[in-house]
What does this fold into?
Amino acid sequence: ETILSWIGHCQDSDVIEDITEDMLEKLIANTDMIAVFFYNKREKGEYEDQLEGLESIDDELDGFELPFVKISSKQIALDFGFEEIPSLAFFQKGVPAHCDVDLMDEGQVV
It folds into this structure.
């Protein structure tokens, strides 16, 4: 119940929520679909433009009621099979799929 109310809050927010590993595991387990941006905070400056572009995409995904979160952890990305950081993934019923698109192109991501 708490997860579902938090997801509702995220969809009302204009930013992509930064989450922890525990939160990610709960979200994956309790949502049918979720978009996750894996990144490294220490290298954030290198792809700041991508993050800004994803913020506008987040607004589009809200219309589909698709939660969009971000997590700074190369290890967690690797655990799910994503070797490159930054990386965008979609989880459907707990199954991850890498989204191999230009993160700056809103049309490709949505």
